[in-house]
Design brief:
Layout: E1 2-3, E2 12-15, H1 21-37, E3 55-59, E4 63-67, E5 70-74, H2 89-98, E6 107-113, E7 119-122, E8 134-140, E9 143-147, E10 157-161, E11 166-169, E12 178-183, E13 196-202
Antiparallel strand pairs: 1-2, 2-11, 3-6, 4-5, 6-13, 7-12, 8-11, 8-13, 9-10, 9-12
Bound molecules: succinic acid (SIN) and fe (ii) ion (FE2).
């Protein structure tokens, strides 16, 4: 576990190689099962309706969605109307390992990046509590991750996230701006069709 100081904030940790190849394959299989039940769909930006370059789905009691009306958490898939599948066991175990002080995760956002997809700098701030960290897993092609401070124009650092790496945004860094500049094509053999999957675990509501 490496703590990465950023703009005087503490609570950003980087766990390179947290999942070994066997665990990555097992996790991929669990995500494949989840996505068979809750297919990836194309979210759009609030107001403009501009499509995201990533496709999304979720697992857990709540899922993060974005449409013309705004960003929010909801218990069902926006296209099928069905409840999201359960969060895979391996991801629950990861949360217990790195976020044991926090209440159980309620949402796991599944982001799928095809070649050329990216995610602009943003804060994860649609949750009703920021007490729990955001725990993020990378699978497949390597990505360039950028992280800054609590203000959009604070200085940023970038580093590469490889398949199996975990990043934790907790403590003062819970609301740090972050994003994905690019995904490096052909850097992993994990996903048959290439690209990158990012799994983001979050607590949405205050503990009961
Ligand atoms: C996100 O911030 O939702 C995604 C981050 C990532 O893809 O690593
Ligand atoms: Fe995010």
């Amino acid at each position: 576990m490496q703590d990465i100081p950023i703009n005087g904030l503490t609570g950003l940790s980087y766990l390179p190689g947290y999942f070994d190849r066997t665990a990555q394959e097992a996790l991929c299989e669990e995500i494949r099962t989840a996505v068979a039940e809750a297919p990836l769909y194309q979210p759009v930006m609030p107001k403009t309706g501009k499509p995201f370059s990533v496709k999304m789905s979720n697992c857990g009691p709540l899922g993060w969605v974005s449409d013309i009306e705004g960003y929010r958490y909801q218990p069902d898939h926006p296209v099928s109307g069905r409840p999201w599948p359960d969060i895979p066991v391996r991801l629950r175990a990861l949360w217990q390992d790195v976020a044991s002080d926090a209440a159980e995760p309620e949402a796991c956002l599944i982001n799928y990046y095809e070649t050329g997809a990216k995610m602009g700098l943003h804060q994860d701030r649609d949750e009703k509590t920021f007490d729990a960290p955001v725990v993020s897993v990378s699978l497949g092609d390597t990505a360039t991750f950028r992280v800054g401070g609590l203000k959009r124009n604070d200085p940023t650092k970038s580093f590469r996230l490889q398949s199996g790496d975990v990043v934790v945004l907790g403590g003062d860094a819970r609301l740090a701006f972050h994003g994905i500049d690019r995904v490096l094509k052909g850097t992993s053999t994990l996903l048959k069709n290439g690209g990158r999957i990012n799994l983001t675990l979050r607590r949405v509501t205050p503990p009961d």
